[in-house]
Every structure is written in structure tokens, then in C-alpha cells.
Amino acid sequence: MSEQAEIILGGESYKMPVVVGTENEKAIDINNLRAETGYITLDSGYKNTGATVSSITFLDGEEGILRYRGYPIEQLAERSDFIEVAYLLINGELPTKKQLDDFSEAIKMHTLIHEDMRRFYSAFPTFAHPMGVVSSVTCALSTFYPESLNPHRGEDKVNLTMTRLLAKFPTIAAWAYKNSIGHPVVYPKNKLGYVDNFLNMMFSMPTDEYEIDPVVVNALDKLLILHADHEQNCSTSTVRLAGSSQANLYSSIAAGVTALWGPLHGGANQEVIEMLDRIREDGGSLDKWVAKAKDKNDPFRLMGFGHRVYKNFDPRAKIIKKACDDVLNRLGIKDPVLEIAKKLEEVALNDEYFVERKLYPNVDFYSGIIYRAMGIPKDMFTVLFAVGRLPGWIAQWKEMTANKEPIGRPRQIYVGPKVRDYVNIADR
Ligand code: ACO
Description:
Elements: E1 4-9, E2 12-20, E3 26-28, H1 33-37, E4 57-60, E5 65-68, E6 71-72, H2 73-79, H3 82-91, H4 97-108, H5 115-123, H6 130-144, H7 155-180, H8 194-203, H9 214-227, H10 234-243, H11 249-261, H12 268-281, H13 286-294, H14 315-331, H15 336-349, H16 352-356, H17 364-373, H18 381-402
Antiparallel strand pairs: 1-2, 2-3, 4-5, 5-6
Helix pairs in contact: 2-9, 3-18, 4-7, 6-7, 6-11, 7-8, 7-18, 9-14, 9-18, 10-11, 10-18, 11-18, 12-15, 12-17, 14-17
The structure holds acetyl coenzyme *A (ACO).
Residues 45, 264-266, 268, 293, 301-308, 357, 359, 362-364 line the site of acetyl coenzyme *A.
């Protein structure tokens, strides 16, 4: 007989089935818990809650394993490219040559954004954080493509929405940057690859042609692959939760961008570089900052350290650390902040506080240094994360929609006042 969990409540025993995943991950299926017992579970931050069964990404935080559709992240980062990985995540299998060519061509067909959308950019203040701009403009795509409003409107329409998103998102992101520096926007060039095109839209000027450096393209492509999916993290769960109400894909992705923005999630890459700069400006002594991070009365945390699920090492951080060295060496850049980052990692990894709590550098710890070497300004770092995460969000939304998952609606335990009578304002 398959394994069951037994819950004893008020002297009664209830049996709950156990669900076992491909990699022997186990969950107690409590779908009928409330109906049978009247109880709910309480799990702040969903630390122990499986929100879905998914066949997209496997992650083992204890062993430091990350696989997309079964393929190890190390192999994908080394041998694949971002567009192929996007195809894999969204469609479940690696593409044939023809499938990949068709997929890339379809994306190239849709890189322009509607001219009327350009006017949105001039309405944002130039000091606007680009994540706010990207999230707003992504949501606004739904107003230009009303056929996307019904997510069940036929596979072709849904595929077109996914293609449009993948195609337009880099344009939306690069234009947010151009707008923030008061430069004219650069239109996409479809003869260029996905990453080359993005870099060209970021850095090309009417006065100067931008020379695309293959080292930079390769490193950015790798970074995007490493960010492409990470199962049920905060922003992905947000995309699924928004999408579970059958909200359209554009607005569900815009919700994901917003969730990613926070410093405890994708916003950490910007925070890491700001922290390292602060340490450098402060003279570079690490002891003070490590002590602050350990002090419970001090809100300071070592940004880029710790992870909700990785308790051994973050496999993406290992790859990025190497890519970071490669890029800086090839571009001949000496960034003093990289030296501080390496020392900080060494100090923290040998400090009892961090060892005990299994706090290791995460994906964001080194990515900011690479972005900076590429000339990307720090408030665009999280936008780059969003460009990378987009195929994962789309794949998760598609899976949730195909599985006809019910609307997400957690419960709560109410601890407010008991019922009381309204008192007129004159008597209070
Ligand atoms: N610096 C100092 N102490 C830390 C840090 C840190 N970066 N991270 C966790 N801790 C401590 C906590 O104070 C807590 O200590 P305690 O047990 O004595 O109270 C313990 O380690 C556990 O921390 P939690 O916050 O409970 O862990 P949780 O899983 O909820 O949070 C998180 C994970 C948000 C990533 C956290 O480690 C953090 O804030 N890190 C810094 C921000 C960051 O780098 N975020 C990016 C994450 S990766 C990503 O989203 C792409």
C-alpha cells in the first residue's frame, strides 16, 4: 500500500495520502484536510507548502542541484543558449534545429512595440526606477492586444501572446534605460541575436555605433540562462497566483516583475553592489559589516547571502563566480569591489554565524559585478533578472493554465477582536 500520513485531532485519526515526485520528494496531500477535519494548516512564508505539482524545474537545496526539464543547469549554461533554454522551459523538450529556427524567427517578427506606447515613456519621470516602468508597460501590452484577455482563447492566440512577450520584453527594458538617461530609444534590429539586440538597444547611440563584444554577449546569455526559472519562488508564485484568477498573461507577468523588484528577491543584485560600494567607501574593513549583519538589533543583512531553499550552495553562484572572473579578465577590468566580494565571501563562509545558518552566496552576489563590468547601471540589474526569468514565468503560467488549477486563495487564522457593537462617534 502506498505511504499515508496519519493526523490525530481531537482523538480522531485521519489518513492523508502521500504524493511522491520523480526525484522522491514527498508531500502530504492535505487537499481534503479542512473538509474532513475543519482544520487548516498555518505556514507563514509557505516554507513547507507545496502549491502545485510541476514538471518544469527540479531543485534540491540541500544538494545544490538545479535542473530545467531534467537537464542540469551546468550543462545548459555551458552548451545551450538563452533562446533554446526558453523553448525548453516553455515546451518541455529541447527543440530540433527547425523548431529552434521557427521559434527564433517568430520572436524576431514581434520585437517592435506599438508606436503609441512610446508616449508612455515620455510620461514617466526620468528618475523613475526602471522596474516600475517595465512592470507598467508590460501590463499595458494587454490593452494593445485585447485578444490576450481570455487565456483560454485557443492555443494559437496564447502562443502568439507568449511570443510577443519574449520579443517585446527586451525592447521594453532597454527603452526604460534610454528614457532614464534622456537618450533617444534605439529600435530593435532583427538581424541580431536576442542578447546582441538587447545590448544594442541599451548602448547604441545615434552618434556612435555600438560594437557588440562577443565576450559580453556570451556572459549575458549565460546569466539569463541561470535566471530562467527557479520553481515556486516569490515572483513565480505571484505569476501563478495572479494567473489563477484567469488574469491574462501580460498582467500576470507584470505582477511577477513587481514581486521580483523587492530587495529580498531579485532586487538583491542592486543591493549587493550598493553594499559593496558602501564597504569600499568605508575603508574596506569587513569585520564591522560582518558584525552588523550578525547583530539582531541591526537591520543590516549581507545582501547576496542566504537563500530560502539552498542550504548547501547555490549552483548558479558557482557558475557566475567563474563567469565574473572570465568577463573581468577578458575585458581587462579591475574592479576593487570584486576583491571585497571575494574577501567577504571567505570571511562569511568561515564565520560560525553564517556556517550554522547555512548562509552561502546566492546568484545575486556576483551577478551585479558582471553587469557593472558590462556597463549596465545598477538600477537595471533587477530588470536583467526579469529578462532572464521571463521564460520561466511563461512556462509556469502555461502549466498552471493547462492543468486548470483552481484559483489560489489561502486561508488565515483570525486573531482580531471578537464581535462588538458599533458605537456612535459622539459616544467614543
Ligand atoms: N545576513 C545576515 N543574516 C542572515 C541573512 C543575511 N543575508 N540571511 C538570513 N540570515 C539569518 C536570519 O537573521 C536568521 O537568523 P536567526 O535564525 O538567528 O533568526 C536566519 O539567518 C534565517 O533567516 P531567514 O530570514 O529566516 O531565512 P529565509 O529563508 O526566510 O530568508 C532570504 C531567505 C530572504 C534570502 C534571506 O537569507 C535574506 O534576506 N538574504 C539577503 C537578501 C538576498 O540576498 N536575497 C536574494 C535571494 S536569492 C533570489 O531571490 C534570487
